[in-house]
Amino acid sequence: PHLLCIVAARPNLMKMAPILAAFARLAPQVRISLVHTGQHYDTAMNAQVFADLGLREPDLNLEVGSGSHAQQTAEIMRRYEPVHQDLAPHAVLVVGDVNSTVACALVAAKLGTPVIHVEAGLRSGDRAMPEEINRVLTDQLSDLLFTSEAGARANLLREGIAQERIHFAGNVMIDSLLRQLPEAVPPLVSLRAHGHDCPATYGLLTLHRPSNVDDAGRLAALMDAMCGLSSQLPLLFPVHPRTRAMLEKTGLERRLREHAIVLLPPLGYLEMLGLMQGARLVLTDSGGIQEETTALGVPCLTLRDNTERPVTVDEGSNTLAGTDPAAIVSLARQVLRTGGKRGRIPQHWDGHAAERIATATVQWFAERLAP
Ligand code: UD1
């Protein structure tokens, strides 16, 4: 059988690496093609992370780049369709919830190729979030759905997905984390490499959601809160390109530099693991980081009103902090006083999710491709 796998944006890479490794180990008879859509194109967003994960070079890069949602999604579909027809895979495997996920799933489904979705069934319930739309649509287009947390199954059943299509595989992002943790770069080393001293204790901040960073007023309010917090806890802030552009445009960058906030470029995966592991507290609006901090038992404040990953709050070390600056600062101070939530490890976040996916997929191929 021939399986075509899609990567597009940085968080896809940590999910795909263990999947390819599991197929290579458990099912070498499956031919794998790897296509990069080029949604993320910066070296900082890509090359180092490929190297850190030992992810092989894609067979092809569609180089779609950025654009409005419609432009980007349409461009991915336009460029991907002939590639899909040319490679003629038996199935296409997509991960996560980025625009490339839904774009490639739609092309494949229309061409009659089965779609496999890894990280199915996550729902924030918030349709203002572009990723929520991508999640709902991708799951509707998928033939085989692998979930990362137990609650995702109920979300899929509610949307009419047949239960025999759903498999609780566990979290592939945590497969990568557990595999790479021994290689994590110590914070001292990565900060020195970027020209900074490492504070004895620190908080780690990441922000890139359009709802938090695209509106100048909203971003300024959040940054004011972070400036306030930084007098008690120095903050390390690797800045996503989307956020960097807004900080520069609004002049906020200058204000941050007057406080104990270290602005860093997008980091490699092993650097990020080291910084998360060493943090007193992580503040983020990322999906993956909510999961990674839960796996590490590091307290996390999620700067959003909802999460599609509720197990990180119910069982893990995550707290939904909302976006009100005063409330965030007060929750952060509480973590500093009490040490914060440590949580426990959710079911199947055990480093073997990709193996479950490879095994179930081979079984599924055997049933479908039987003469
Ligand atoms: C995308 C995903 C988001 C994911 C995030 C991880 C969608 C809808 N969003 O958001 O779910 O959490 O990736 O990073 O698919 N840019 C660069 N270099 C790059 C990529 C982007 O400079 O390599 C800049 C461009 O100015 C671009 C902006 O970032 O306009 C946004 O990029 P885009 O791919 O649209 O979405 P992300 O914000 O990265």
Automatic annotation (TrEMBL):
Domain UDP-N-acetylglucosamine 2-epimerase: 28-359
Source species, domain of life: Bacteria
Enzyme class: isomerase
EC code(s) of this entry: 5.1.3.14
Keywords (A to Z) from UniProt: Isomerase
InterPro entries reported in the protein's UniProt record: UDP_GlcNAc_Epimerase_2_dom, WecB-like
Any one GO molecular-function label of the UniProt entry: UDP-N-acetylglucosamine 2-epimerase activity
Similarity comment text for this entry: Belongs to the UDP-N-acetylglucosamine 2-epimerase family.
Protein name listed in UniProt: UDP-N-acetylglucosamine 2-epimerase (Non-hydrolysing)
Organism of provenance: Janthinobacterium psychrotolerans
Taxonomic lineage of the native organism: Bacteria, Pseudomonadati, Pseudomonadota, Betaproteobacteria, Burkholderiales
